């Protein structure tokens, strides 16, 4: 792939190291590196995180506390004093402009110099953050520009255009690099290099989306024009930032569109559907599929019968019944003489799926196996061998299934459950275990639309938006620790009526050991002191698989009344007779976790309760999360709230989820731009000659440069 000469030149120049910028010596270079700025391009993309309005001088009477302001006035008093309590020296001055007065304070200063400069009657321009102390307003350590005798403030403002008379950028700082110096460096970078930034987005798209030329966008994002709306700037809605965000999203979406198109064009195995196993299964099930389940199954079936591999995401809230849909899809693959792999994020969930699948497959005369990391070498070898020869029709497992050495006779369908726990790459690995197998991924974490567009933009989407009938919504209560006794009494009552309960302990520290300790000590104490008449069981992540399986089995068969656990039961566990979920230290859990935990109850027809116990010292965010839990049980609303409280980076764990790091875009704020960019990108990718026409050469090159690796795109240059 060779770049066009102009693109090559500008790419090279944008990679120019910052030391070539005027005013950047080795000391400053080090500071810049701390901010992650090495090249001219890094600097261009380091946009201000806020702006300062210095277009006009403010009257002192108008100075708003909490904001940084520019004002002018006359010094009416200046002296060194000693604070009464701390007995520290400070320097104090009063400034007045006739409309009002404001105090200036310095806590670190050179006394002689200050006394000489701050003479009563001198005029100056001051810049600083206004603080309020009771009725008084103060500025600590303001910037001061003294006015020469007889000069008026306006003249000074005009003489220093980098500091006054406009909207100024405010950049992230690092110690030893003042805002003023950084501003100067950035100004130099923008003046000399912005012109090299040329977007590869085709003109017709740029004009439809009302984009600025890229160089202009950089200039204005750093140094906004005087007539721009400050509110728009602050909310990131100005044309300049919108252009840069669009540019960033556009290429990501283009990559996703091509990936999707690549899959669509790929040849797959078209299945025949004769319902050899699905019909008998449907007859055996103790319930009828919901309309939503049937619709989604229909979408899956259509994909499976097409001559291209399926690549579909099934999204549905906890308890909506995704497993049975997956099983039906699996049976269609098996009916077509291919094998199925089901990957789950935890051993417990893999085991539970295995038990469920195994039960139905056995009745149908099919073979099912389990593969996890903690099985013995011998067990594993036997399973691997049976999978390789095709003796096994369906294998359920953890990450272990994705490892090298797992080979199939013919993998026809790969299913990933709780997809949000895996990354994009795992999907790729599973896919390569067969020859263009169909892929079905499932998630219960409802993902806000903007996030799912970026994370799963290359997947077709099915939504199960209906719960099986007869479920009563879970009653959720937040209780302080004082109410724990009452909560226990409530559990006793429920058990007395033949129901069961979960009690969940959080991770106390990062280490799993202490997590285990809290739960196992909790279990012992509950058994001995609180519930001596009931059977208390313990489940945690460090138990052997067969131990875990035994405990789960006991709980299912009601040989255990109360299951004390760590968060290992968070995903997928299904015991309809359990009606109480008590969560200790609920404020330490994330919203998604709490939602999943609550999803363990309310699975039968009986009224279920979720009791969230919080400690007295609970952070503000913690309170917000618990509040959300009591307000809604709608997974989508919970996810939106979660995204808002935590921000997208942490929402799913950037690395793990394969969520790209954006340079300017913000998923919370820029959802609309993302959708616009996506629409245009998908339209472009659908052009017949997109891959070949010289007109799109540059777009293709930029795409490969930016996303080729991360999206695992085959070379298209
Ligand atoms: P999830 O979507 O969270 O994975 P599951 O597949 O575990 O949910 O299903 C939750 C429970 O609902 C299971 O006990 C399952 O047997 C039951 N279920 C699934 N579909 C239906 C249905 N159509 N009618 C009644 N119960 C159903
Ligand atoms: Mg599930």
TrEMBL record:
A GO MF term: DNA binding
EC number: 5.6.2.4
Catalysis: reaction(s): Couples ATP hydrolysis with the unwinding of duplex DNA by translocating in the 3'-5' direction; ATP + H2O = ADP + phosphate + H(+)
GO terms (BP aspect): DNA recombination; DNA repair
Domain Helicase C-terminal as annotated: residue spans: 483-649
Keyword line: ATP-binding, DNA damage, DNA recombination, DNA repair, DNA-binding, Helicase, Hydrolase, Isomerase, Nucleotide-binding
CDD domains, sorted: DEXHc_RecG, RecG_wedge_OBF, SF2_C_RecG
Residue intervals of the Helicase ATP-binding domain: 303-464
Root EC class: isomerase
Top-level lineage group: Bacteria
PROSITE patterns: HELICASE_ATP_BIND_1, HELICASE_CTER
Metal-binding recorded as keyword: no
Pfam families to which the protein is assigned, alphabetical: DEAD, Helicase_C, RecG_dom3_C, RecG_wedge
Function: Plays a critical role in recombination and DNA repair. Helps process Holliday junction intermediates to mature products by catalyzing branch migration. Has replication fork regression activity, unwinds stalled or blocked replication forks to make a HJ that can be resolved. Has a DNA unwinding activity characteristic of a DNA helicase with 3'-5' polarity.
Family membership noted in the UniProt record: Belongs to the helicase family. RecG subfamily.
Protein name: ATP-dependent DNA helicase RecG
Organism lineage string: Bacteria, Pseudomonadati, Thermodesulfobacteriota, Desulfuromonadia, Desulfuromonadales
Gene behind the chain: recG
